[in-house]
Specification:
Elements: H1 41-47, H2 55-73, H3 78-87, H4 89-95, H5 106-116, H6 128-145, H7 149-155, H8 158-168, H9 173-182
Helix pairs in contact: 2-5, 2-6, 6-8, 6-9
């Protein structure tokens, strides 16, 4: 029996920290595990159909996802925050082909949203993985369909996205959005 070295790739939005362990959520398609592929592109397709977007567009998806995560750290009610943001002037500017908001980063973007509506209440927050997925997927949806944030949220509000997360988060973003639009 000859020894063969196989290089494996793992996709992660946050990178690896510490010992590698099969500690993923039980709701993943194939159960708990540490998902890897033999081709570098495989893990990327599990996270999102990244090859369809430019690097800049992918960065904007991630910024919005991180901003949604950050809202929970501020203990903002997730449903109220997301529903407000998707209707906000800040989101409207973020939808433009180029605007200063796109270069601000998630902390300054969140600051703008909170300045636009300082009365967003604190309350029930979604888990950070769900929030990242919702924010990322909403921005991806914008790039895929060229619809503005307000129109997207009318088709699928924060509560519905949160409800869909367990079943759709392992799908390619394009597939998840297509399934949402088919419903």
């Amino acid at each position: 029996m000859s020894e063969q070295i196989i290089q494996l790739y793992h996709g992660s939005k946050n990178g690896l920290k510490g010992k590698i362990q099969p500690i993923s959520r039980n709701l993943c398609d194939f159960g708990t595990g540490f998902y890897m592929g033999t081709e570098s592109e495989q893990p990327l397709t599990l996270m999102s159909n990244l090859h369809n977007l430019s690097q800049f567009e992918r960065q904007l998806c991630a910024v919005q996802g991180k901003m949604f995560e950050l809202s929970a750290k501020k203990n903002l009610d997730s449903k109220e925050f997301i529903d407000f943001y998707m209707q906000s002037q800040t989101a409207k500017f973020f939808d433009l082909p180029f605007d200063r908001t796109q270069w601000m980063g998630e902390e300054n973007l969140l600051y703008d949203v909170m300045e636009e509506n300082p009365n967003i209440k604190t309350g029930k927050t979604y888990d950070s993985e769900s929030l990242f997925w919702i924010g990322y997927t909403y921005r991806y949806w914008h790039f895929l369909t060229n619809q503005d944030s307000k129109s997207i949220a009318k088709k699928c509000d924060a509560q519905m996205m949160h409800t869909l997360y367990p079943a759709y988060h392992t799908l390619d973003c394009t597939q998840a959005i297509e399934r949402i639009l088919e419903a």
